[in-house]
Each structure stands twice: as C-alpha cells, then as structure tokens.
Amino acid sequence: MAVLNFPIPYTEELMYSAVARAGVRQGLTSPKQLLDEVFESRSIIATIDLPNHIATLSRWLPEEFTPERLIYSHTLFPLYAPFVPEARRLQCMNWLYQGTQGAAHLALGVSASRIKSPRFVRYCPGCIAAQREQFGEYFWRREWQVAGVESCPEHGVLMDTRIARPLIERHRFIAAAPEHCHVTKQQKGMGVSDWITTQVRRLLVRPAQASPSFEQWTGYYRSLAYRLGFYRGKAQVDHSVIKNKVLKVWPAAWLIRNRLMPPSSDIDDSDWLKAIFRKHRKSFNYLQHIVVHQALLDNQWQIDDVLDEVSRKPTRKTPQQVKVVMQQSSSQTPDQEAWLELLSSCQPLQARKKSPDLYARLYRNHRDWLLDVNHRYAQDKANHNVPRIDWDKRDREYLQALRQLVTFLNANKQGPRRSRTYYLKLLGNLSTLEKNLHQMPCTSAFLVANSESVPQYQIRRLQNAYDDLRVLFDSPPRWRLLRNAGLSEERMMEPARQYLENLVDTEHEVQRCRK
To answer: What highest taxon heads this organism's lineage (predicted)?
Structure first.
C-alpha cells in the first residue's frame, strides 16, 4: 500500500498536522480509515507533541525526510532532548521511530512534570492569516502548543480552539481549518511570553546532538552561582538571593499559573529552584532552565550558549576499583576466622545480627576485607537461586483455561472482538502474561490460532445483525444490516464487504426462486 500525495510538512509544522492534512487531501472523514491508509494500523493514538511510528511516516516522504529529521523538525522532542542523559535521549528516539505508546512521555518526564501542557490546541490568528495568503491552507505550528508560550511576538496573544488536550477522540487527526481557527483581533502580546518564545524557538531549531550528563549539569549550575557571586562561605550556594532574583523578574501570577512559584518555606524538599543548583539526580524542564537564566542573566543570554557550555564541562571518570585480595587462612586474625565460620552457616546480615560486636571490630580494623567477603558470600547465594516459576506448568494451566474460555464464548455469538488482548484480560494479569508469552509456547500458539481479526469480527457482527433482522424481514435491507452491526461503508474491511455482498445476493436469489 502507498499513500499518494502525502503532504510535505511545512517549516515548523507538527507531524500531527501533516497527517491531518493528508486526510483532508484524500477526502477521508473516518479517523480509522486515515489510520489504515497512513499507518496500516487502527491502534495509533493521535499525539500532538511526541508522536510515534515516525519511521512509517517517513516512508511516504522524500528521502531527505529521515525519521531523525522528522523528530527534530516536526515534533516537540527538541525541547526535552538536551536536558535528559544521552542514553535516555537515544532510547526515546527509538521509541518515537517505532510504536511504543506513551513510553517517551514517561522517560522525558512529560507525564509527571509539574508543568502541564496547554488545555486546548492553540493558534495565532495573525500567523493563520499569513499561512492562508502564502500557502492557501492552514497548519498547526509547533510553538503554539508549547507550555509557557502564551503569545506570538509578531501578532499577539494565542487563541484557544475548542479541541481539548488530551484529545477526546484519541484516534482522530484534526486539521487546522477555518471552523477551528477563527481569524479575530488579538490582544497585545506579553513580554514574559516573548522571553520564553525566544529561547523555545532556538531549542526547536537546534540540531540533533549528544546530551550532557547529570554530572555536567551539576557542575554548570555550581559554576554559574560561583561566577555570579551567589555563594555563602566557600562552597554553599546562597539560595535566598537566587529566589529573590526569580521573584523580582518573573510575575508571581505567571509563576503560580505554571506551577513554578518557589515555596515560601526554606526547608521545603519540593523546592525545584534549590534542587536545580544541587546535585542533579533527575532532569529539569526546559521552562525551569529558562526561568533561572532569564532571572540571573537578564536578556544577555541564549539557550544555545548555555547548552554548549554545559557540554564542555568535564565528566568525572569512574576510578578503577582496586580488587581486594583476601588473605589466606594462615594470616587471618581470629576475628576474621570467626566471621568466616559464621558465614558458612548463614548470610552476612544474619551473621551481623548474631554477633554485632565481632562485626563492629572487623568493620573498624578490616573494613575492606569484611565488605569484600560479605559481597562474595551474598553473590554466591544469588547465583544459586533457582527459578521461582515453573513456566511449563503455567503454560499448561493457561492453555486449559483458554480452551474453556473459547468453548464458553463460542456458545454466544455476541460480545466484543476476541483479540489476543481480550483473552489475556479475561485470564487476568495482562501485563505479566504479555511480557512472558515467549516462555509459554502452547498458550502463545493457541492465541494466534483463536484470536479474532478485525474482518472476522465485522463478519460476526453482520451475521448477528442478519439473524436478528430475519425475525422482522424476509430479506433484511443492506442499510439495516449495516446499522444493526454498527458498521459503515468507510470502516468496513474488504472481507466483511464481500461477506455482506454475498449475504444480500444470496437472500435475493432465495426470494426470486420462491416467486
């Protein structure tokens, strides 16, 4: 299958918008039909900021539109990529190439972030009017959907559409169109938003490159505080001065609206502003970095320069661990020999509880030896652990349960599609079963043989509708069959269509013979 005339994404257009325009060009009104055409799958979720299946989309575009280019030029991934460790950045790109639903949002911190996405899809009336003049159609720009960007520097405040986020219709790609984007007069833009937009635009056009480590971010923020003189004593950051700077530059209402207001208490562990100047153990949102730098450096800074400086920070090499060689029995002290005797009958933790005085003496006088021998004994115990689950037995049990389920379900023609997921849900422990199906070959083979495809499900619905309507009609009309089956011409798969045609033709032939 090939998608003809798939639209080339405009500069700064979201990939979500390009897919929606493809549906308009093809004249497709059914969201499932668009998914069939573009992705060859009906399970795709229409995602505005971080869509997946990018590799599939790149197939319909010229060669220069590689998956990496689509991710960096037509999604919001560049806003998060520089602030997560390199391994996570690469993993998230791999997830966006393929089809892991929601994994990138979790790994990039979007799902759990204190900064929430805008509640509605937004647009700039001035930019929309310019798009209509230049291109003859509308499209969704990336920066309109970025949290913190509340106005367009060129035209004014962004407007909300009635399209809620997250999308109510999860599978529908909605194109920017006059019915959603009314060209109205805009209020004057906000200077605070312009600060954000300036740096966001730089992040969005920044090319793909390796991300700094947490250690480099830690070193950068410590050096920034030292360079600006925000230190007490020799090594302690003066957090109160930094907090006052932030509160002086950024309006309190804006900080509260974006959940960035520093807590009033100086001992609050949830204070992100303090955490960003301490040792980094997690990534911080692009908006948090912008708030700090705008407050401390005013307008004399650019996010590109910050990222370049962080990347130049040294990373401490992990020192080579010196292997501790255990002394031979002849040179061991009585305490060491007593400890080894204890370890021959119990684990290190139990030995410590049995003889705390002995443990304390060894820890004080032979610490390296004690830690090494405890580690070795614990490791030996771990290596001798036997598998906790008999997968062959579990395979037989699940196979028997599935056979009973199929017998029960076959007695009733009604009900939802009997897919693999449906059967696994009925068994319980869906996620555990899905992860371990490779260890249960009989169960897996049974599911493959008995799972119902979409065409098979549609045929079953048509047959059920036909059986129900025969009570009222000698020859049920085609449109009634479709309505009772809950199907439409657009969503009906080809095997189901052929079955329906045969059903209607056969009924007409029977009626003709009776006459």
So the answer is: Bacteria
